[in-house]
Amino acid sequence: MRNSGYSLLHLICFLGFQLVFLAANGARAIEEMKNLVNVGLVLDFNSSIGVMSNTCISMAISDFYATHSSYKTRLSLHTRNSQDVVGAAFAAMDLINNEEVNAIVGPQTSMQANFVISLGEKAQVPIISFSATSPSLSTTENKFFIRTAQHDGSQVKPITSLLQAYGWQEAVFVNEDTEYGNGLVPYLAYEFQKFNIRVTSKCEISLDSSDFEILKKLNQLMARETRVFVVHMTASLGSRLFLLAKEAGMISEGYAWIITDGISNMLDSMEGNVIDSMEGVLGIRPYLPPSRRLKNFKLRWKSIASQSKNATKINLLGLWAYDTVWALAMAAEGSGLGEVSDDVFKQNSSRNAAHLSGLRVSDTGLSLRDMVLDTKFKGLSGDFSLVNGQLKSTTFEIINIVRKQARVIGYWTPEKGLSRSQKYSKVAYTTSMDELKPPVWPGVTKSIPKGWVMPVTGKKMRIGVPIRAGFTEYLRMEYDPYTNEPIISGFSYDVFLAVLDELSFAIPHQLIPFIIDSQNSFKTYDYLLYQIKLQKFDAVVGDILITANRSQYVDFTLPYYESNVAMVVKIKDDQGKNMWIFLKPLSWDLWLTTGLAFVFTGLVVWVLEHRINDEFRGPPDQQVGTICWFSFSTLVFAHREKVMNNLSRFVLIIWIFVVLILTQSYTASLASMLTVKRLQPAVVDVDKLRTNGDFVGHRAGSYIKEFLIKQLHFEPSKLRHYSTHEEFDEALSSGSQNGGVSAIFEAEHILQLFLPHYCSKFMTTGPTYKTDGLGFAFPQGSPLVAYMSRAILKVTEDKDKMDVLKRKYFPDKSACQDQTTTSSGSLNVQSFGGLFMITGVASFCSLLAYVLRFLYSNWPQLQTRHQERSFWSTVSELATHFDRKDPSIHSYDRSESSIHSESSPQEFRNIV
């Protein structure tokens, strides 16, 4: 019984062993039925990223085939360790030739990938990288290079949006001196340039730099004025950089740091003291959409990491590596690699034997590449979709490192720009900082850094000051009798000091005099301003006209003083000395019209009075004299002839009213000419100056010379330059024909210093040419321009302060206030056209009424007596009858008043 029990136990054990054996052989048999797809993996297994990526890839293969157990293909990994470029190249050649891989995942860095890609092109083996993100590695130029990650160039727009949001106009680019670090520089500079953001300097740090060398470069950056730093480097070098930056005092108030995803993706893997040194830093990294699958994967990873002392936290590179394997496994199944014969490579005899001897060429690489490019699925890192051979760029997170943690303060998308939340809905693209949560800045402050400061190394700002011989009210230079140092004063410098007082920070500066000399082309205002571009001066302060041409190489502040270009000429001699001035009040056409009106009115009155009034009868010469005398005597109301016709009286009433207005106007105009001093310019037309070939002047060394040649088209040979008040006076007084000039063109801020001393001799005339006024000049892109412009507005809007400065330097204008009184010219016929029309119509109508009545009374009698006579004979007899005195009219005595004469009712009826 006992033996039979033992026998049963042995039988059970035997059967169990057989079942296990059969199961193992069955699994092995099933596994052997799968078509293996050889895939090479090139990583640096001595780095944390390499270890993490390798683990993620192993988990991806296990998870994929556990989910897709029905697939006929299975990826077979062949790993190679590579720590440098040479190692990566040899590893790739070994995998292609010896392992006959269908694809290579890796290598880990952009520099290594640059060499391996060329091998993949020759062997037609896809090189799939999830970590070589440098945009210098082009997926469009290299057909067999696939990047299953977002390239670094996709961060350029989010970084630019951040600088725009906080109003920073310049930045320093700090990068790793590798293929990865340098690849982003041209893309960033190009994007900055589109928005007028300058990269003021570039600091390259090599991987093997010592701490002393890094500190030395940081001190050089600290000596510059820019305080915005964009850092693009790997996490290992970035950790050293920020530890040393904190030691140098550069993680403090006033500084702004922006890191790219090379560091921001690895924050969870950095040590606590490194994160602590990055307090207040802003970062950009791709947005990782949450999902249940991702959450479960992180829990599994945490479990694995807890069993290993050297395990790191999972980051985006690990997730990209995981998704890369899934994409490759799907592509391998879809490309039909399982149906291809084992001999998928052929010898390439055309290779250079010295370098790529015996490199095999794959027959399946092209189809596998196409399948990978077309693969789309929902991965751990989000939507897996390749565009132009690389992962599609979507949303970025804006993070702020606070208390050793990365706090998300906003997002950036290509469609909407910056936004505070993923759920935040808006239509327009914006770069406003209001769309972001308020960050904490270095120095644990919420005050936004202005992006620049004055250098802290004791270096003063070099300010050029133009000094000239004349017109020193704007800038004057004297020497200290003890130190022999130049002392600058003047209106422009006082305005500059007032502007500095309005700033919230100090600007240590050194004034450097620059002598303006028209005889030397290197001593002009334009040459002085160009020294800013050559970095010999940091600014220029003075009476600098803002012009379009100058703005091509400097930036101007807002104008602190208005000043247009005007023409000053000599005043004509006083016309009161003219012996014919009595003719000036009326123009020649008015004189002629008035004379004709006098004659016409006299003739009308004579016609109306000739037959009934003895005063208007007599010999022809006497009648002509009467006509002229009577009409002109009304000018001074000296006519003594009585008028008897009511029509004549009507004509005279209108005419005397016209004469009254004419005489009063003439008297007023003549009195004004004789008593008020008239200032008339000798020249008023610029075109006439050019036509006559006259010489014109300008101030030595100023912009006006270029203005006269290019805009007013004067010949350079007709230009003469002067420097002082006295030279201006002498040139204009002499005139163009005597070695002087006919006119001087100059900015109004200079003329207002000249004219008060010579307002009795010269005056401005002609059109005024617009300029943008006087301003201060700085280098293009200088952040000081905005601050100085705002301060200038505060100063110029303070009327009391500006009035004090003007009274201090500028002469009183009251002495020349009458200079604006100019001649109004002679009165013309248009001013009295209405009056002449009224008196003309009245006279004509009266004359017409008289003639019609005369014909009505006499024409029928003549026609009855002389019916056979011609028309002209009848007219002649009418004229003779008109010349006879009307016998029915009583003859009045001369002494009788023409107004109060006594007449019978019958006589009045016969009049007219």
Description:
- The protein has 912 residues and is an alpha/beta fold.
- It is built from 29 helices and 31 strands.
- The chain has an eight-stranded mixed beta sheet, sandwiched between helices. The protein has a five-stranded parallel beta sheet with strand order 2-1-3-4-5, with helices on both faces. It has a five-stranded mixed beta sheet with strand order 23-20-24-31-25, with helices on both faces.
- Helix 4 (110-123) links the parallel strand 3 and strand 4 (127-129).
- Helix 8 (211-222) crosses helix 9 (235-247), helix 16 (491-502) packs across helix 25 (784-797) and helix 18 (588-609) packs parallel to helix 27.
- The longest helix has 33 residues, at 833-865.
- The termini are far apart.
Number of DSSP helical runs? 29
Strand fraction: 15-25%
Mean pLDDT equals 83
Task: Kindly state the percentage of residues in helix.
Answer: 40-55%
The backbone outline, from C-alpha atoms, is elongated
Arrangement of strands in the largest sheet: 7-6-8-9-10-17-18-19
Overall strand count:
31
Distance between the termini: 182 Å
Which stretches are poorly predicted, pLDDT < 50 over at least 5 residues? Answer: 1-32, 340-344, 346-357, 818-823, 891-912
Largest sheet: 8 strands, mixed
Structural class computed from helices and strand pairing: alpha/beta
| C-alpha-based Rg, rounded | 51 Å
